[in-house]
Amino acid sequence: MPHDQDIEGDTAGISSEYECLQCGKLIRAETHPGDCPDCDGEFQNRAKSLE
């Protein structure tokens, strides 16, 4: 992210997109959603690199 677009202060209310690593289900949430309700797989924030 460019430096002039850094987020400062309270980030409450900013949602992220999470993807289930097992079945691929996508959801938007403000905090980590836990396990996938469809397959019990683990969610990963899509903004985070898988490397």
UniProtKB/TrEMBL annotation:
Protein origin, superkingdom: Archaea
Pfam families noted in UniProt: DUF7129 (PF23455)
InterPro entries: DUF7129
Residue ranges annotated for the DUF7129 domain, each copy included: 16-47
NCBIfam families per the UniProt record, alphabetical: rubre_like_arch
Annotated protein name in UniProt: Rubrerythrin-like domain-containing protein
Organism: Natronoglomus mannanivorans
Source lineage: Archaea, Methanobacteriati, Methanobacteriota, Stenosarchaea group, Halobacteria
